[in-house]
Amino acid sequence: MEWLSGLLKKDTLRRILVFVLLGLVLYFVRSMIDLILLTFIFAFLVTRLENVILKRIRMPRKLIVIVLYVAVAAFLYIAIVHYLPILIHQISQLVTLLVKMYNHPGDNQIVIWIVEWLKQSNIEKYLQSGVEFLIASLSGIGSLGLSFFMALILSLFFSLEKERVTQFSARFLTSKVGFIFQDVAYFGRKFVSTFGVVLEAQLLIALVNTLITTAVLYLMHFPQLLSLSIMVFILGMIPVAGVIISCIPLSIIAYSIGGFTDVFYILLTVVVVHAIETYILNPKLMSSKTDLPVFYTFIVLIFSEQFFGVWGLIVGIPIFVFLLDVLDVRSTSEIPRKNFFGGRKKKKNGDS
Q1: What are residue 344's phi and psi, to 5 degrees?
Q2: Which helix (H) or strand (E) holds 70?
Q3: Is residue 180 part of a domain?
């Protein structure tokens, strides 16, 4: 057993083994990944809102949690009863409009060239996979709704009994396999401080982008405004690529409404929204470790979509940032001034 004692003393190797063990556990419960992710997201967001409210209002924490979940329940009731039928009707009209534009582009040579390019490019593959995912989601709406409901219930119980849950979980740290749970707690803290924060930032960025885009679409008298706003918000959760993808259907609808003038306004809006996201929102909401080059962003999105499906487009970047934090990949200001191939950078005038 000496080799085991030696292994336990090596933090890096032990944590690698624990990390692999956690990966295997998640692989075996992959059918419940929706429930796990939704529960974490709800509990994290409620905890953040709770802390924000407690800084401004002196009231019992559990009362804040109850009020928040009552508000969520009221919002879901209004959305399902009043807005869901409108949304379904608008989506059907929007799909009919896009299919009509795609199949009958008209006599304009530029539009014909764009449609032909879309048919020949790989974007049709992504659209097809998105439609297949939508059909699968609609066919399994019962299980999806059950996962959503169970995630709300679990996050509610966690938020109400957060102190007891924390105290009870701390007992595992002193158990016979406490070294495993100590490393699990280490990864848990890293996960919350990176994955949760980045996902929260993505939500806020998507919300701001949706508000700006929806205001422009309203001024341009776009039809099916509710369904388009939801589409922009969902695609806004995908870093960088989401803004570009949303430009395609919006441009097609803009051309059908007002020709190239409206298309120009849509493209200008997308440029402005992307500039706000890149130069204002990202630096304020994201830490320096999440300031990824666009090349890395697209590579992560491509691979995460292959491994996690549509979920990967949303959680791919937060998971990658979590791995960077675990591997202790430091920001540019913290690393020695060397180039990628190991050589030192030439000193500039004034460098010491």
Answers
A1: -75, 145
A2: helix 61-78
A3: yes
Residues 6 or more apart whose CB falls under 8 angstroms from that of 81 comprise: none
- What residue numbers bound the domain in which 242 lies? 2-331
Q: Which two tokens stand for residue 160?
A: 């109400």
Q: What is the three-class DSSP state of 6?
A: helix
The reply to whether 343 falls in a domain is: no
Q: Residue 137 contacts by C-beta under 8 Å, 6 or more apart in sequence?
A: 144
Residue 337 pLDDT exceeds 50:
no
Q: Which of 263, 280, 283 is nearest to 331 (CA)?
A: 283
What is the residue-wise DSSP string for 163-183?
Answer: HHHHHHHHGGGGSTTHHHHHH
State both tokens at 290. Answer: 């999440």
Alpha-carbon radius of gyration of the chain: 24
Give the mean model confidence (pLDDT) for residues 15-24: 85
DSSP letter at 333? G
How far is it, in rounded angstroms, from Cα 11 to Cα 341?
29
Tokens at 325, concatenated: 């934090």
Structural domains in the chain (count)? 1
Q: Which residues, 6 or more positions from 230, have their beta carbon under 8 angstroms from its beta carbon?
A: 87
DSSP class of 22 = H
**Geometric angle at alpha carbon 315, from 340 and 73, rounded to 5°:** 155
337 in a structural domain: no
Residue among 200, 173, 163, 186 nearest 315 (CA): 200
Tell me the pLDDT tens digit for each residue of 60-80: 888 888 988 998 888 888 877
CB 44 within 8 A of CB 68: no
Name the DSSP class of 155.
H
The string of DSSP codes covering 182-208 is HHHHHHHHHHIIIIIHHHHHHHHHHHH
pTM of the model: 0.69
> Which of 144, 120, 149, 147 lies closest to 134 in space, CA to CA?
144
Phi-psi region of 349 (alpha: psi -120 to 50; beta: other; left: phi over 0): beta
d(CA 192, CA 199): 10
Percent of the chain topping pLDDT 90: 1
Structural domain contains residue 352: no
